Amino acid sequence: MPISVVLRRLLLIALLVLPQVYWLGTAWSLGLRVARIQRWLIRIFIVAVVAAIVAVLYDGIAVKSLPAALSNRISPPVQLWIFSSTFAFYLTKGLHGLVFCWTKVAGLHRRHEPMPIHDVSRRRVLRQTASILGGAPFIAAFYGYARERFQFAIERVEIEIANLPPALDGLRIAQLSDIHAGDLMPIDEVSRAVALANDLEPHLFVITGDFLTRRGDPLAECIRELSRLRAPLGIWGCNGNHEIYADAEDDAETLFAANGMRLLRHTAAQIEWNGAPLNLIGIDYQRNLPTDRTVMPTLNGAERLVRRDMPNILLSHSPDTFPSAAAASVELSLAGHTHGGQINVQVLHTAINPARVITHFISGPYRLPLRDDRKQQAWLYVNRGLGTLGLPARINSKPEITLLTLRPAKHS
């Protein structure tokens, strides 16, 4: 393993461990101030928390060794604690640093004067306020965990397709994405999402990748649940990046076929509705995507699958293939991958969304000129996904089931 990779991992571990030492060390110290019985209860609790953190991190980083029932119970709260405590620690320390700098700068103006009592009190209040604000990540994370994580939202969207045949006007497509079945997405929640999606009565179902998170997750059980989806034009899908990480691309394809569905891997299939054809294209997530965000990935040879005699729909886990798809005459691209950022907070007219770090296409519909023709539009729809990754919480970015209805473009 390259030394740079080792150093980055050690740095990441240090950044995660430091907050745990601070918070748990503080709790341990506070325990010294209470009665002996309470003190021992606090110590036992802290030791149990440390053991759970170590077990979950080992289970996630090294090898999946925890029994599924136990992992499903302890992994979500432990990961919630790790992420929220880390953000809270660095936010608190950052705010304390700002208070320290402010008081130092203010003190320069009266260097030779004794500090008034009210200034000492003001500084104490500022530090206490900083500590309270630093606890905001805890409150937000626990809200997103308890409230929005499984609050599936139905998004109904009409998409105007250039040169759409009249027979396809009103075609309904339901999209699921980013299931991430495993510790943070129990199979019974996948089953509930399937039932909600079936209630929409679409003509076609598509699933745009990330059926699991890592090797050892219940891929077969997830795909078995997805096979309960019902649509006259069938259930179609594509692989995501986590199928690559879990070395499960081939397994997903095999399981799809065994359950009466089809996973498109750099292939296309023509389906027909009311006598009109539709070209459905699916591509795998590309392993070597450009690191420069100004360079968008290509379709990696799938341009040859595009038809000019019928509308095209592309299933691509990554939304960043959209510019290439629009240039290749794909009328509609369906993607996921971003989870809508999982956190979407508006602060002073600025959206704080982690997905902005990886892509320009966060969630919802986007348009670009079709084949560089300003008169016609290509569409992308980015689904926020069902599952979560890392932080088991969602804040103002609910898990999504999408129902897209095709309409002819008004100018076509």
What layout of secondary structure does this protein have?
Blueprint: H1 3-31, H2 36-61, H3 68-108, H4 117-134, H5 136-148, E1 153-161, E2 172-176, H6 187-198, E3 204-208, H7 219-226, E4 235-238, H8 241-245, H9 249-258, E5 262-263, E6 267-273, E7 276-283, E8 312-316, H10 322-327, E9 332-335, E10 345-347, E11 350-352, E12 364-370, E13 373-382, E14 400-408
Helix pairs in contact: 1-2, 1-3, 2-3, 3-4, 3-5, 6-7, 7-9
Write up what this structure looks like:
It contains 10 helices and 14 strands. The protein is of the alpha/beta class. It folds into 2 domains: 143 residues, no CATH class; 256 residues, Metallo-dependent phosphatases (Purple Acid Phosphatase, chain A, domain 2, 4-Layer Sandwich). A 6-stranded mixed beta sheet has the order 1-14-2-3-4-5. A 6-stranded mixed beta sheet has the order 6-7-8-9-13-12. The chain has a two-stranded antiparallel sheet with strand order 10-11. Helix 6 links the parallel strand 2 and strand 3. The radius of gyration is 25 Å and the shape is globular. The mean pLDDT is 86.
